[in-house]
Amino acid sequence: MTFSMVGIIGAGTMGSGIATSLAQQGVSVCMVDASDEALARGVGAAKKFYDRAVEKGKLSADDAAAMLGRISTDTDLASLGGCDLIIEAIFEEQSVKEELFGRLNPHLKPETVVATNTSALRVSDLAEAVDDPTRFLGLHYFNPAAINPIVEVVKGAKTDAALYDKAMQFCRDTKKTPIACKDAFGFAINRFFVPYANEAVRLLDEGVATTAQIDRVARDALGVAAGPFVVINLVKPKIMFHAQRNLGPHGAFYSLAETLAERGDTDYSFEIGEDAEGDAGADQVIADRLMAGTFFPILQELDEGVASAADIDLGAALALRFGKEPCALMDSLGREEVTRIVALATEPYGHALPESLAKVGSLRG
Ligand SMILES: NC(=O)c1ccc[n+]([C@@H]2O[C@H](COP(=O)([O-])OP(=O)(O)OC[C@H]3O[C@@H](n4cnc5c(N)ncnc54)[C@H](O)[C@@H]3O)[C@@H](O)[C@H]2O)c1
Fold first, then answer.
1. Which of 8, 9, 14 to mutate to test the pocket of ligand 1 (most atoms within 8 A of CB)?
2. pTM of the model
3. 5-182 falls under which CATH superfamily?
4. Cβ neighbours of residue 127 under 8 Å, at least 6 residues apart?
5. Across 301-308, average pLDDT
């Protein structure tokens, strides 16, 4: 095993999910959290996951007990002194993470690798808070981390190349599918998934269609297992608000849909009623706009070298369950049709057409 003793800081949704996954693959994990209650909840979530697998006959009771036994807990960062890899999964706040890394530094062995599970902050900025930024990178797991196979492995400006390769191998060793990506807002997957969902809210705001219609067309056009509104409600609209706002530096197209902007950080969900059959014309408008919201950011990512077309498709298929892989779909639609669609995202916002449009037809080689 590339790293045999892993520390996880933060026993919340992500930290406990990562711990559950690693312990299942034979890795010893020490979870640290500021509170004992959070640690108890984190271990409880792992136990529940293993118990359910036993009930379904996927695991033996002995194996489940061994997995749970690999997860230890502590409230003291000093307990992570023996770890080869430490994954930080605490609140998404730069100053809180930097303060934590400052306190962690004295406990690190020179060879320890430190990773952040941040979704929205720059890995290269956070790296400056550890003593050796060459030993720092992003390991961005997806929720639910116990089962979602994708991990974006994010190279910071100073991340050592050999260490980066080792982290990629660690993901494979622990039965995850790593996606190599650059340190850009949204990394490889949220960069297009969040604008696709934002575009769905824009269609609703503009009165083009109902939530149910938009979800139906999305299932058809992109082969998604669940439409954007079902997913937004699952993730919570206020999380999508933060995620889309994080993409703001990429330009005007990434501005917030009106409802997301207006309701901001409040708790609410979108009502999804009965699906009324729309006319074919309306369905085409919805499909085009959802595809524009997906294709444009992907082509920009390809221009910027954030990730490869093959990895973007892998992430779409495995992390998001897009039945139609977007780069392969663009190849099959052809350059002329994709240019028409992408213009729906560029023209209203004053963006230039992405250079990678020229490669449509052979994005996947
Ligand atoms: N939830 C998701 O879907 C998701 C997906 C990918 C990445 N992320 C990222 O993962 C990180 C964690 O998110 P989450 O959803 O698991 O959060 P969460 O609120 O569920 O859990 C955070 C945990 O960190 C603990 N914590 C906070 N400050 C701490 C400190 N200084 N020292 C020790 N423990 C501390 C809290 O007690 C809590 O248990 C964030 O950076 C988030 O952006 C979240």
1. 14
2. 0.96
3. NAD(P)-binding Rossmann-like Domain (3.40.50.720)
4. 133, 136, 137, 156, 157, 158, 159
5. 98
